[in-house]
C-alpha cells in the first residue's frame, strides 16, 4: 500500500507544507521515522526530533510553528494526535480486510452457510451446519466445529479452535491459537480414588465486539453457556472455566484465570495473573490488582481489591508496606520484651 | 439426535406421567429448560421451577409428589440425579464417538499402523512408524510425530501436538492445542554469558485415563521419560517440565507450573496457578492451595499446604489473617514503645 | 540410527574394554540403561549402578578403575561427562536435521523466496513475499504470514504462528504452538464505557539464537518492534506484551508475563510465574525469584529481587521468615500490652 502525502492530507482535511508528491508506505514514531514513513508531533517534548527525523512526512497541529527548518513535508491539521490515530485505523482496516476468497485446500462441512465476502485460508476447517456471517475472515489452520454460528465482520485468526455449538457475535476478533468451547474440568471423585469425567454438554457464547487473546482458553458450560458479554476484552493466555460469565466491557489482562461458575460484572478491570475461585459474584466496576487471588464475592460496585488472598486495595497497600519492615518489627518487639522483663 | 420421552424412560427404567410421544433433543437445567429439552428435579429447592419450566420432560424421584399441575411430562425413577447423570453420559458418548473414517486431505507416514474404527480429521498429520489403537479419534489439525504410540479409545482433539517417540495410553483425552513432548528448557551457561542448548532426547509417557487440558504443555525428558500416571487429570494452560512425574489420580487445576524433575505423588489435589520448584518430592495425597509456591519437599502424606512460599495450610491461614492487621500491629508497637520510654 | 561401540569410541577418541561390535541405538542414564543403550559414569556416587546396569556400553574416565567385574563394554575417555554431552549433541543434530524437502499439500505464497535444504511439512503455510533462509525447517501446521523473514538454520515447529512482517534471526528454535506477532492488548476507553481497539501495526524481531517455548505469545509492537535480543531463551506459556524488549542472553522461565513497553536488560535470569508491570526498565543481570511481581524499575546491575511486590531478595527472605511467625508476634504483642497496662 502506497499513498502520496497529498492523498493523506486530503483524507485528513489538512494542508501540506513541502513536497506533496512523495510516497508514504508506513507509520512510525517521530524518533524512529525512516524514508517512506509518516509520523506526527503532538507533545512538544518531542519537538527536537522534528528537526532530525528521516520520516518523509509529519502531521502537526495547525497552531504549531517550527522554530528551525524541517526536511519532512508537514501536514497541518486541527489535532495531530487524533489525525494520526485515524490514519492508524484506516491502515489497520486496509490490512485486516484485504483478504477474501478461499485458498485451497480448505474444508467445508455439509449444510454450512457462508455469508458474502468471507475469507477462508488454506487448511481452514469448518464443520457441518454452521452459519458464517458476511465479511467473516477465517485464517489458515482455524478450526470451527459443527453447528457453530459466527456473526458479521468477525476475524478468526490462524490456529483458533471453536468447538461444536459455540456462538460468536459480530465484530469479534479471536487471536491465534485461542480455544473456545473445549470441555470444562469436571470430574467426580469415586470411592476407589479415581475420577469419573462429568460430561460437558453446554457451549460458549461470545457476544458482539468481544476480543479473545492468543492461546486463551474458554471452556464450554456443563449445561447452558459460558458467556462473554458485549465488548469484553480478553488478553493472551487467560483461562475461563465452565459456566463463567464475563460482563460487558470488562477488560482482563494476560494469564488471569477464572474458575468455574464465577460471574464477573460489567466494566470491571482485571490486571494480569489474577486468580478467581469458583462460584463467586463480582460486582460491576470492580478493579483487581495484578497477581491477586480473589476468594470471596465482591458486592459493592466500583471496589478496588488487591493481594492474595485479595482485600481492599488501600488496606492491602498498607499491609504490604509493613510487610517489608517485618524484620524490624520483630526486633523492636524483642527489645520491648527485654525491657519489660527487667 | 432425537428421542421420545418413552424411549428415554425405557432407557432409565422409569414410568411416564404425561405425553410419552414428545421429542427430546437436548439436556438442560430445570430453570433454563426450553421446548425439546429434558431436565431433572432432585434438590427440592428447585421445585418452584418445575411448575414454570418450558422443558418438555423432567425426571423426578419416585417418592416425589407434585403440589401443583405440571405442564412437562414427568419421568419417575429411583434417583433422579443419578438417572440424569446417566443420560448426560450417554449423550456425551453419542457425540464423542460419532466421528469415524477419514476426511481428506490427511497425512499418514510410512510404516504407521492404524487400529479399527479410527477417525482422522482433515489436515491431521501422523508421522512414520506410529501405532494407533482401535477407536482412536484424531481431530483436524492434530499433529503426531514419528514413532508415537496411542492406546485404544483415546481422543486427540484439534491442534494437539504430540512429538516424536511419545507414548499415550488408552482412554486418554487430549484437549485442543495441548503440546506433548516438546523440548524441555535446558541450557548450560557458557563463560561468555551465552547459553548452550542441552539436547532433550527423552519422551513423554501418558498412562491410561489421563486428561490433558487445552494449551497445556508437557516437556519431554532430557533422557528417559516425563510420566503422567494413570487417571491423572490436568486442566488448561498447565506447564509440566522435563523429567517430571505426576502420580496416579492426581488432579491439577489450570495455569499451574511444575519445574523439571519434580515428582508429585498419587491422589494429590493441586489448585490453580500453583508453582513448584524443580527436583522436589511431593508425598501422596498432598493438597496445595491456589497460587501457592512450593519450594520444599512434602514428606508426610495427606499434608495441606498453602501460600508462597508454601507452608502448612492452617498456619498460613493464621499468618494471612494477621497480615491484614499489620498496620494495626505496627501502630500498637509504636504506642508500646512510647509508653515504655517514659 | 545404529552405531557400534567401536564407532562411538572412535568418534570420542576413546579406548574400548569389552565387545566393540555391539550395536548402540539410544542414550540413557546409567540406572535406567537397557540393552542397546550407551550411558556414562562421572560422579562416583553412581558407581554401584555400573556393576548392575543393563546398558550395552558405559563411557568412563581414563583414570577410573572398576572394583568389580562389569558386563557392559567400557569406553575410556579423558572426561566421561564431556564425552557423553558431545554424544547427546551429535544425536540431537542427527534427529533435528533429518527432515528435508516438502510434504504435500503445503501452501507457498507468491513472491516468497526459499533458501536451500529447507523442510516444509504437510499443511505448512507460508504467505507472500517472505524470505526463508537456508536449512530452515518448517514443520507441519506452522503458519507464516506475509513479508516475514527467517534466517538460516532456524527451526519452526508444528503449529507455530508467525504473523505478518515479523523477522526471525538465524539458529532460532520456535517450539510448537508459540504465537509471534499477534496484536497487542491496546484499547482506548470511550465515554460510554466501551473500548476502541488501538491498531497494532508494528512487528516482532527475534535476533539470532533465540528460543521461544511452546504456547508462548509475543505481541507485535503498536508501532516499531517488540524485540528479543540475541541468545535470549524463553520457556513455555510466557506472555510478552507489545513493545517489550528482552536483552541478550536473558533467560525467562515458564508462565512469566511481561507487560507492554517494559525493557529487560541483558543476562537477566527470571524465574517462573513472574509478572512485570508495563513501562519498566530492568537493569542488566537482574535476577528475579519465582512468582515475584515487579512493579518498579531496577537500576543497579546484578540486583536480586523477590516477592510480590518485589524487593531485595535478602530483605524479602527475612520478611517472609517473620511472616510465618506472625501469629506468634501478635500474641506477644498482646501480652506486652497486658503487662504495660498493669
Could you give the topology of this structure?
The structure is a homotrimer of 342-residue chains.
Chain A: E1 3-4, H1 5-12, E2 15-17, E3 23-24, E4 26-27, E5 37-41, H2 47-50, E6 57-61, E7 73-77, H3 80-96, E8 101-102, E9 107-108, E10 113-114, E11 119-120, E12 125-126, E13 131-132, E14 137-138, E15 143-144, E16 149-150, E17 155-156, E18 161-162, E19 167-168, E20 173-174, E21 179-182, E22 187-189, E23 195-197, E24 203-206, E25 211-212, E26 217-219, E27 225-228, E28 233-234, E29 239-240, E30 245-246, E31 251-252, E32 257-258, E33 263-264, E34 269-270, E35 275-276, E36 281-282, E37 287-288, E38 293-294, E39 304-306, E40 311-312, H4 313-324, H5 326-341
Parallel strand pairs in A: 4-5, 5-6, 6-7, 8-11, 9-12, 10-13, 11-14, 12-15, 13-16, 14-17, 15-18, 16-19, 17-20, 18-21, 19-24, 20-25, 21-26, 24-27, 25-28, 26-29, 27-30, 28-31, 29-32, 30-33, 31-34, 32-35, 33-36, 34-37, 35-38, 37-39
Antiparallel strand pairs in A: 1-3, 2-7, 22-23, 39-40
Amino acid at each position: 500500500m502506497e499513498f502520496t502525502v497529498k492523498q493523506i492530507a486530503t483524507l485528513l482535511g489538512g494542508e501540506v507544507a513541502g513536497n506533496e508528491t512523495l510516497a508514504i508506505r508506513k507509520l512510525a514514531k517521530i524518533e524512529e521515522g525512516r524514508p517512506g514513513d509518516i509520523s506526527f508531533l503532538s507533545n512538544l517534548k518531542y519537538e527536537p526530533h522534528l528537526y532530525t527525523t528521516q520520516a518523509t512526512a509529519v502531521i502537526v497541529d495547525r497552531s504549531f510553528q517550527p522554530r528551525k527548518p524541517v526536511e519532512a513535508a508537514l501536514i497541518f491539521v486541527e489535532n495531530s494526535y487524533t489525525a494520526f490515530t485515524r490514519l492508524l485505523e484506516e491502515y489497520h482496516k486496509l490490512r485486516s480486510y484485504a483478504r477474501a476468497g478461499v485458498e485451497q485446500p480448505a474444508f467445508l462441512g455439509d449444510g454450512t452457510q457462508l455469508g458474502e465476502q468471507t475469507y477462508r485460508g488454506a487448511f481452514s476447517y469448518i464443520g457441518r451446519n454452521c452459519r458464517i456471517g458476511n465479511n467473516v475472515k477465517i485464517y489458515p489452520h482455524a478450526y470451527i466445529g459443527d453447528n457453530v454460528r459466527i456473526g458479521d465482520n468477525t476475524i478468526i485468526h490462524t490456529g483458533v479452535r471453536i468447538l461444536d455449538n459455540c456462538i460468536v457475535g459480530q465484530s469479534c476478533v479471536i487471536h491465534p491459537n485461542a480455544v473456545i468451547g473445549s470441555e470444562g474440568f469436571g470430574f467426580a471423585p469415586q470411592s476407589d480414588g479415581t475420577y469419573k469425567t462429568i460430561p460437558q454438554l453446554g457451549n460458549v457464547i461470545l457476544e458482539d465486539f468481544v476480543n479473545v487473546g492468543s492461546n486463551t482458553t474458554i471452556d464450554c458450560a456443563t449445561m447452558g453457556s459460558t458467556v462473554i458479554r458485549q465488548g469484553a476484552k480478553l488478553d493472551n493466555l487467560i483461562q475461563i472455566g465452565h459456566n463463567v460469565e464475563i460482563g460487558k466491557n470488562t477488560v482482563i489482562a494476560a494469564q488471569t484465570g477464572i474458575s468455574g461458575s464465577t460471574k464477573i460484572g460489567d466494566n470491571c478491570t482485571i490486571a494480569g495473573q489474577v486468580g478467581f475461585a469458583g462460584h463467586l459474584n463480582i460486582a460491576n466496576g470492580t478493579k483487581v490488582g495484578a497477581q491477586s487471588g480473589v476468594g470471596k464475592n465482591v458486592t459493592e460496585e466500583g471496589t478496588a481489591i488487591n493481594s492474595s488472598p485479595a482485600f481492599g486495595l488501600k488496606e492491602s497497600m498498607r499491609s504490604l508496606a509493613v510487610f517489608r519492615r517485618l524484620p524490624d518489627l520483630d526486633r523492636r518487639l524483642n527489645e520491648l520484651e527485654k525491657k519489660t522483663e527487667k
